[in-house]
Design brief:
The chain is α/β, with parallel strands linked by helices and 171 residues long. The chain is built from five helices and six strands, in the order βββαβαβαααβ. β2 and β3 form a beta hairpin.
């Protein structure tokens, strides 16, 4: 399972397969309303992610590591809070988690650590044999992380998405 933490939208993706061969996948996002207080939004992310984790029972959560731009330190702090809620949900259900920096994910899937979101999304579609754009981009980023978890797993998971838009991978 891959997770791209975000306060407005947290991307979530599930893959099933063996090593680099994907057999099933699903993706989506958890949206929160900007007018709601921060604690309520964090609680909403936590509860919805718990439900997905309970439904899917993933072998591993791959979470995008927190980063902060110098000119936007408050955004980095907020992202850290969201990431904490995501990691707590996984811990609550005893799902192992690893964090991967966004540049590492981009390098693994595109060969370029400075790839754009569009380039990463296109690479993800290529790995999945998925023709239509994956939107929102948070879901594509989460799928990139889920693919990395699958690629690195010694015993790749046998899970597929129930609540999200599930897809059969092309042969």
């Amino acid at each position: 399972m891959g997770i791209d933490p975000g306060l407005a939208a947290t991307g979530v993706a599930i893959v099933e397969g063996v090593r680099t061969r994907v057999t099933h996948y699903a993706f989506g996002s958890i949206q929160t309303a900007a007018h709601r207080p921060l604690p309520n939004r964090l609680h909403q992310i936590y509860l919805r992610l718990l439900a997905v984790l309970k439904d899917e029972s993933p072998d591993l959560m791959v979470v995008e590591d927190v980063f902060s731009l110098e000119q936007y330190p408050t955004s980095g702090i907020t992202l850290g809070k969201v990431s904490g809620v995501v990691l707590l949900a996984g811990c609550h259900l005893k799902v192992p988690a690893i964090e991967i920096p966004v540049r590492e994910a981009k390098k693994i899937l595109t060969g370029n650590g400075k790839a754009t979101k569009a380039q990463l999304e296109k690479s993800v579609r290529h790995h999945l044999h998925h023709d239509a754009p994956i939107r929102p981009f948070h879901a594509a980023d989460a799928m990139a992380l889920a693919l990395i978890g699958l690629f690195r797993s010694p015993c790749a998971g046998e899970k597929t998405g129930g609540r999200m838009r599930g897809q059969e991978a092309a042969p």
